[in-house]
């Protein structure tokens, strides 16, 4: 019965580890990315509203260019029908601006991506995914062929490698110039202002958020480094707990080993002179001091590990830590930030939330497996040696 329980515990540990690894991989996919998402302007027959917003958004991103490595504007619409004379498919369409593929990576299989020239001239060009190309053209060369979107014809400029992706409601994706979407009065749902940064602090994120909220309020801002750190916080606390437990266990074992040497030399002094053992005693003292120094360094590293999130989540820290009113003010400030009635999300945000869920379930499975198997290294009581009473 005990062996069966341990086998189940090992299975839970392996499952938890697999879920945690998959969740962690999803959390790191959008590292260094900042997003501000707005509702797209309503399209009219004349068109042009989306293009006006795009041009103004480009100016806002240009004003913070020194704090980011790349930035771009795009718009998204889900559930649009892309078709040929014989086939059709529900597709998520991205209307992209200049430099979009410097921020969002896609693997090009054939043809070319949407270029800056396409955006400037509002070309009716479209980049489709591999599965759409196979469905529509059955192995024929897709580049140069024509597809229909929203009643208008677009020429296929390229094909990218994609399969069914997390964070998308449709199996297929396509890219067109944002200026063409505006000129053709294509109804988009959201506008995404995306930037990449190598700033490990929150400085560039705060600058981008403040700049864009001042320009257009009501949007949703996402700092994916910060979101990933928050999503991984349960694992962080588990690592911290395990680290403290391991550190305390090592301290007790080192104490026992050091006291064991004391007892050994105390017994030896009953039959030998101290000068004959001075070399061994010195070596034992130095080794013990080295061990305690290493444990002190590990304790410092754990302390730093525990407070590092406070440098990222500065909004968690009250202005006066010991003042109840300041703590309450900070609490309601955090509540207000998360209580928005309307929130706009991107594919990246949906992927991150999937990773967060996998990570949490992985943590639960790891804890269950650890409980079923036990942790004898931490639980075993260390016996302290005693000095012999014989003379």
Description:
By secondary structure, this protein is an alpha+beta fold. It has two domains: about 35-195, no CATH class; about 230-380, no CATH class. The protein is built from 13 helices and ten strands. The protein has a six-stranded mixed β-barrel. Strand 2 and strand 3 (about 90-95) form a beta hairpin. The two termini are about 50 Å apart.
Class inferred from helices and paired strands: alpha+beta
- What kind of sheet is the major sheet? 6 strands, mixed, barrel
Q: Number of DSSP helices? A: 13
Could you tell me the mean pLDDT? 87
Question: What topology emerges from the helices and strands here?
Answer:
Layout: H1 2-27, E1 33-39, H2 49-63, E2 70-83, E3 88-96, H3 100-103, E4 108-111, H4 116-121, E5 125-129, H5 130-137, E6 146-149, E7 152-160, E8 172-177, H6 178-183, E9 190-196, H7 203-215, E10 220-223, H8 224-231, H9 233-268, H10 278-312, H11 324-337, H12 347-373, H13 376-379
Helix pairs in contact: 1-12, 8-12, 9-10
Keywords:
2 domains; alpha+beta; elongated; about 400 residues; 10 strands; six-stranded mixed β-barrel
In short:
With 391 residues, this protein is α+β, with helices and mostly antiparallel strands. The chain has helices at residues 2-27, 49-63, 100-103, 116-121, 130-137, 178-183, 203-215, 224-231, 233-268, 278-312, 324-337, 347-373, 376-379; strands at 33-39, 70-83, 88-96, 108-111, 125-129, 146-149, 152-160, 172-177, 190-196, 220-223.
